[in-house]
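User: I'm putting together notes for a lab meeting next week and I want to include a structural view of one of the chains we've been expressing. I don't have a solved structure, so I'd like a prediction I can at least talk through. The sequence is below, exactly as it appears in our construct file.
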Amino acid sequence: MKAQSSLEYLVIVAVVLGIVAAVSYFMLSPVPGFQKSGSISICRQAAIECYAKKQVNPEDPCKNCDSACLDSSGNELFEGALRCCKAGRSSAIYEGSQENCMESPIADFTYDCQENSEGITECDFDATSSYDTDGYIQTYSWQVDFLDSDRNSYRATGPYISLALEGGRNRVTLTVTDNDGLSASKSEEITGSYGKLSQCSLYLTREECQSDPDCKWCDFTGTQFDYCTYSSYSCEYGSRPPLLP
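Assistant: Thanks for the context. Below is the predicted structure for the 245-residue chain, given as structure tokens.
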């Protein structure tokens, strides 16, 4: 009789524990179609945790932000809350925040320059190392300013360009714009070769230059020079253009 009572007691305890476990499971498990509500304080804490994670792994997706920064309807607490959280920017998360935490793109390019058979510097530029942490690069714009020449600036678009530089200093500027409309720029100054020029700096007139078979005088209209001793895009036939170094 005593053993039977003990058995009944154990059965009752097991049933009670089972009921408690079942109730706890249903209380703690998310109900389908119901979004757990976040809050500004929870979202801010998630951003702090995200920042710490990204110090270890910059590619961490910070999934804790997904629920922490959404309301019960699944909407962001404010426009850009998720972006701010996943960027680890806790200071941008507060009541009434209007920050969207969009990140500007990073402009970057590499280049390879070689002298051609005429001694002119030709360069290939590659901007594919540019990137955007929260989107993608939408446009690539180039401007090349020929600082030691009166030649007009060169402009082009696209991730790759190739061109011949002017003799002297050339400033190459890349501007990238991302899908959010934010832009960033990078500039490099590159020195170009003047080409194969005869060294006849003592000749003051075209006639003097013509008397020497190794000397050539500048008599072009602005498209190219033909191994001139004196060369400038602004020179005129028969004049004495500025001396080159």
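A couple of points you could mention at the meeting. DSSP finds five helices and seven strands in the chain. The chain has three domains: 32-101, 110-192, 197-245.

User: Perfect, that's what I needed.
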